[in-house]
Amino acid sequence: MADGFAQQLPLANLTVVVNTGDDFEHLGLTICPDLDTVCYMLAGLANPATGWGLRDDSWRAIEQVARLGGPAWFRLGDLDLATHLVRTHLLKQGERLTAVTRHLCAQWGIQPSVLPMSDEPAPTLIVTDEGVLPFQHWFVERQWQPAVREVLLPDDVRASGAVIAALEKADVVVLAPSNPFVSLDPILNVYPIRAMIMDVPEVVVAVSPIVGGVAIKGPAAKMLQERGLPVSPQAIVDYYGDLIDVFVYDRQDQGAVNSPDHELLCTDTIMHDRDARARLAREILAYTEELA
Amino acid sequence: MADGFAQQLPLANLTVVVNTGDDFEHLGLTICPDLDTVCYMLAGLANPATGWGLRDDSWRAIEQVARLGGPAWFRLGDLDLATHLVRTHLLKQGERLTAVTRHLCAQWGIQPSVLPMSDEPAPTLIVTDEGVLPFQHWFVERQWQPAVREVLLPDDVRASGAVIAALEKADVVVLAPSNPFVSLDPILNVYPIRAMIMDVPEVVVAVSPIVGGVAIKGPAAKMLQERGLPVSPQAIVDYYGDLIDVFVYDRQDQGAVNSPDHELLCTDTIMHDRDARARLAREILAYTEELA
């Protein structure tokens, strides 16, 4: 979705606020999986086969970690490792994550502003039937199989000044078609992001991550079922409620959403390739311009 | 030298106590260059071309670190990185460096006991004409060029129990032909290693790192000159003084050592290959047995 808007907007007009609830310390390194995935995509370096990591990466270090009896469940590529090494180096020197991310984006030639939601640690914890798991241990190591009873988000995290400034001047806020519970809620939960989105006059759009009864990727469908909710865009629009103005859902679900309080945009939402990402972004921008 | 003794002794009889004054935190990782060099050598994995690092390593991660504007002066190979990642992981879990090293040695199939001199941090600082530098910044980043005014060793570091136990039962202690000021002194300075070597009845041997007026490798010759001392084995035997019983120096310097208080073994000391290492170790063992 970020790449779609990057293709459609003057680059200085796009800010991507990224979940850092997934971040963790691993093998001594500070790893920010969502920041990296967004940046690799915007830099044109993303691995299209996996949806994470870098294209043309290799696995010598992590395979050697496995041989040495270390934890190899989080697959760090040799090139990808450099991102974590440099980030960790700069953080240890006292830089804030926002500044570190700006540095890395400059090296990658990324022009939109990519902002971690906060400079403070904000770890998401997953309360499962098998105990409380740090996010990546649940998501990657356990492949999101343990049933989720609750998502624990820290309640005292503050947004960075850069995020607040971006929200203050935003005309349109788009909640990407990510998992509402573990990808969007961690951002919305950072003070005062939810309140700013509720109060300020910009148009707020959400794109459904559920299409045709399944999640396009990840555990959103499974988590809806575990909450006793239908796996449908209706459950998503109901969940966001009055936080959003516009709900975008897929043509496959035409007629399946009924929400008198929202503007509804029914279109093709599955972003198979660069062009599809640009088209969806263009449609959302055109729709919100018409509203305004 | 360690490899020579490993070829000559029953492996359970050999303990290698290693300088950890060179250790440093870099890019988030705990790096122990001397431990790694010793272990890679004993495992048969050392890179013979460099004298450090692993054979057949690659440089994708560190070259990417350079591209991202990070510090790349300490050349971490992709396979070598795994050592630091696993070590850092285990240390962060609360393991001591002695136990971490034992774990890694087991993975590498190393049978002699390889012991860090201490489980406490013991950073060597180099006071130079250009300021105080942490050891690796002087040795690697600045390629030991800034003139050394003083080597600062911490005065409150204690040996591990494993080192003390090994010294208690040692028949022969050999100070390897390393730099006396920055490789041996950091070990001897750890309490109570110097006192144990002085007091206990084992035979203490030192091998000269100076041959034919030069250091076989590293800054020993330059450091002798900066101290106003001759670049000769005589300067080394004088420096160790009554700490040692036997002094081993090279045939190239025959007649150049005069030290009535020491037993002198003049032989070929340059260890070009595995066989040369084994031969020197064999000669030292034979000589000390004759003494005893």
N-to-C span of chain A: 21 Å
> What does the overall shape of chain A look like?
globular
Number of helices of chain A: 12
State the CATH class of the largest domain in chain A. Alpha Beta
Most extensive interface between two protein chains, with residue counts:
A-B, 33 and 33 residues
Order of helices and strands of chain A: HEEEHHHHEEEHEHEHHEEEHHEEH
CATH A-level architecture of the largest domain in chain A: 3-Layer(aba) Sandwich
Number of folding domains of chain A? 2
Strand order of the largest sheet of chain A: 8-9-12-13
The Cα radius of gyration of chain A reads 19 Å
According to CATH, what is the topology of the largest domain in chain A? Answer: Rossmann fold
- Kindly report the average pLDDT value of chain A: 96
Describe the structure.
- 2 copies of one chain form a homodimer.
- Chain A is an alpha/beta fold.
- Chain A folds into 2 domains: 1-19 and 117-292, CofD-like domains (Rossmann fold); 22-110, Orthogonal Bundle (Helicase, Ruva Protein, domain 3).
- Helices cover 40% and strands 17% of the residues of chain A.
- Chain A is built from 12 helices and 13 strands.
- Chain A has helices spanning 2-8, 33-42, 60-67, 78-92, 97-108, 135-141, 161-168, 180-188, 193-199, 220-226, 233-240, 274-291, and strands at 15-18, 24-26, 29-31, 113-116, 125-128, 131-134, 148-152, 172-175, 203-207, 210-211, 214-215, 246-250, 263-267.
- In chain A, the strands form 5 sheets. Chain A has a 4-stranded parallel β-sheet with strand order 8-9-12-13, sandwiched between helices. Chain A has a 3-stranded antiparallel β-sheet with strand order 6-5-7. The first copy, chain A, has a two-stranded parallel ribbon with strand order 1-4.
- In chain A, helix 1 (2-8) packs across helix 12 (274-291) and helix 4 (78-92) crosses helix 5 (97-108).
- The longest helix of chain A is centred in the C-terminal third of the chain and has 18 residues, at 274-291.
- The radius of gyration of chain A is 19 Å and the shape is globular.
